Amino acid sequence: MSMIDNVMAGFALVGNVDAFLALAIGIVIGVIGGAIPGISATMAVALALPFTFPMQPVNGILLLLGVYKGGIFGGSIPAILIKTPGTPASSATILDGHPMAERGEAGRALGMALWASCTADVISNLSLILLAGWLASFALSFGPPEFFALILFSLTIIAGVSGESLLRGALSALLGLLLATIGLDLVYGTNRFTFGNPNLMGGLNFIAVLIGLFAIPEVINTVWNPTGHVGKVRTLGSKWVTVADYRRCFRSILRGSFIGVFLGSIPGIGAAPAAFLSYSEARRTSPNKANFGKGEIEGVAASEAGNNGVAGATLIPLLALGVPGDVITAIIIGAFMVHGLQPGPMMFVMNVDIIYGLFIGLILSSGLLFIVGSLAIRGFKPVADIPKRILMPIVLVLCIYGVFAVNNSIFDVGVMFVMGWVGFLMSRYHIPAAPFLIAFILGPLLEDNFRQSMLMSGGTPDILLRGPITWFFWALTLITIIAITRGTLDKAREKD
Amino acid sequence: MSKRAIQFQLGIGACLACLFLILYAIPHWISSPSNMRNIVLSPRFWPSIVAGLTGLVGLGLLVVSRSTPHDRGPANTPIDAPRAGLLRLTGLAGLMIATFWLLPRLGMVWVSIPAFLALAFLARTRHPKTALVCAVAVPVLLYGFFAHVAGIAIPQGDYVRLP
Prior knowledge:
The complex is a heterodimer of chains A (496) and B (163).
Chain A: H1 3-14, H2 17-35, H3 40-48, H4 57-74, H5 76-82, H6 91-102, H7 106-139, H8 144-161, H9 166-180, E1 183-184, E2 191-192, H10 206-214, H11 216-224, H12 243-264, H13 271-285, H14 297-313, H15 315-321, H16 327-338, H17 347-350, H18 352-378, H19 380-384, H20 388-407, H21 410-428, H22 433-457, H23 468-495
Helix pairs in contact in A: 1-18, 2-3, 2-4, 2-18, 3-4, 3-10, 3-16, 4-14, 4-16, 4-18, 5-6, 5-7, 6-7, 6-14, 7-12, 7-14, 7-15, 7-18, 8-9, 8-22, 8-23, 9-22, 10-20, 10-21, 10-22, 11-20, 11-21, 12-13, 12-14, 13-14, 20-21
Chain B: H1 3-29, H2 45-67, H3 82-106, H4 108-122, H5 128-149
Helix pairs in contact in B: 1-2, 3-4, 4-5
């Protein structure tokens, strides 16, 4: 099929009211979810996932992408107003956004956050469209050894950069890999940690694990410390963002967007480091660098451009290689799987209409985000005022229904509860949850590709280094480990 | 608990987990065909690698914990009354066990309503009337969506069945 045919096939899928509504509803849910401290974009996507089961695949995935994009922007609302980032990615926005709110310029800060977010979103989506197809066609030549090396590299970088410690990140990833071994063996069909329970033979349900890991710990935390969230809400003020403000910040927005795209396309980095890097670059090059941290609008623009630039780019490894770029795309991969789709290079061959449908939807999403975001800024108060101690019981009930709906299985609800306590303990022990979840998803793929490689070579490990692609990924893995270890040692020396 | 204590406990935990997996769990809880020619293809090989790496990471954490400076401050934000907090957590664990056990017997809607109220009580809500309204409305609305829109057979229980 030619490019035009593909675009037309994509239009045929998403050129209807249902797809448009799914995207718009997703953005609304995302902005609301991101704006409520304690919900976060990740939890909003996880909670929305079960509601997409009865939908057409492309509409369901568009809804989740809408939640993702809306959630990342929505996180800036509480960051600016109550100094509580709705998502970790919005942490950098606090630095200048909240001082602006204290000065009575919350409306101006939120307006700039929206404009910067939408600009970065457009750039990120265009990068996805330009790069994903090229990367997928390259990945079509990958065999099991290449995929093994690629997944190992992704896991290394995810474990290394997700938390404050490489070792705790690695421990988290190993726990995820271990949990992924539960079920029937991939080659021989023998039992592994199933204890004769038929519910365990297919392995643990991915959605039960992810909702347990990301939503339930928040519920447990609220019970542990019911008053931990109490904050103070600011008013919007009369000042609003102007075109002159936007033009002044445009260079920082553009730079931040490209930083977001670059970091987002590397699996595991995520939005928070992109926001901080974009912020520090803007501060380094700005003529108003002395104002940064005291309420400089360029700081808000740079951090929001950085974190929203990631949103489209994290889909590049997901769609092209089948490797989720961050936790949210790891959840979105669940939507693909539920609808019988496997993201990766073959999807560009087998389901190219869905790929182009998603591209078209993503382009639309930037415009929709602008409209929904403008309304959300004005109507923030009722959203921010939802009492957390009412919200968490709602989350619990939503989780129970949502997880049951995946397989009509009460056992999965039990798995979710157990994983909730695991997630809570992990947070108390400062073990990042992202490597756990991504390793749990990639674990079977990693093992499968390893064993296929061994079958191909008759058990000789030389095949894992069979050509330039595997060398490339092994070298990247080695460089990553060295760089992260050096960084950790340098930090430790600075502390001494 | 200080950061040093966290690193140390994690290190010990990871080493113990490694030993337990290699010495007991993998040999007893993973079945492997008796005529395996190549150990690399055995169903036990991959979990053994993961277990071995867990042990190495545990040793690493123990080494790092020795070089972590003694920090008297707690690594987690302290709460006002930790004992009451622990009691609430125990209550929540009991609530989850009861919910799981009662779901097939009473039905999802009839279990979710008291679970909602109990959680709002455990979280010491200051809006009991709103909690009561939401406790009824949320499970019923979700039932309506999942049972009638998504076509999912939500458990109805043995006593009161919903349309």
